[in-house]
C-alpha cells in the first residue's frame, strides 16, 4: 500500500478514520480507551482544525478556538457514551442526548458546489461541528444505529458502522485488526496440528 493510499484511507494527518461515519471517527480522537492511560488527539484547537480538514469537513486549514475544542470534546464524549450504553444493552442518558441535540441546534455549515464539481462545506469550526452533530443525531436516531459495532480485536475499542450485507463485520479494519486476528488464528491452528 502506498503512502498516498494510507493518507487518503484509514490514517490521515495522524488521525484514524475506520469508523465509516464521521461521528464514530470523532470518537476515535481518544486512543487507548480500554487501557489505563488514554491519549487525547485533540489536545488543542489546532488539532481540532487539522481533524476537521482530515475528516473532509473543511477543504483548507481553518481556525478553531478553545471553545470549539471544548464543544468538540463534549460532543465526542456524548456520542461515545450513547454508543457504549447501547452496545451494553441500555440507552444513552438524557444529558448525553441533550448534548448532541444542543450541538446540532447550532448554525450548520453551508454546502456549496466547488469549481471541481464536488461539494464543500462553508463555515467556521463552530458551523462544521454543528453539521457533525447533526450527522451524529441522524446516525444515533436512525435505522443505522443498530449497525454500530465495537471492534472485536483484543485491546481495540474502535467503533464502526457495519455496512456489510450480512451485518457480521467483526473488526474496525481488515487491514489492521482483521489481519492480526486472522494471523493469530492461523498460528493457533497450526500449533494445534503439530502438537
From TrEMBL:
<dbReference type="Pfam" id="PF07336">
    <property type="entry name" value="ABATE"/>
</dbReference>
<dbReference type="InterPro" id="IPR010852">
    <property type="entry name" value="ABATE"/>
</dbReference>
<dbReference type="InterPro" id="IPR021005">
    <property type="entry name" value="Znf_CGNR"/>
</dbReference>
<dbReference type="InterPro" id="IPR023286">
    <property type="entry name" value="ABATE_dom_sf"/>
</dbReference>
<feature type="domain" description="Zinc finger CGNR">
    <location>
        <begin position="147"/>
        <end position="190"/>
    </location>
</feature>
<protein>
    <submittedName>
        <fullName>Putative RNA-binding Zn ribbon-like protein</fullName>
    </submittedName>
</protein>
<dbReference type="Pfam" id="PF11706">
    <property type="entry name" value="zf-CGNR"/>
</dbReference>
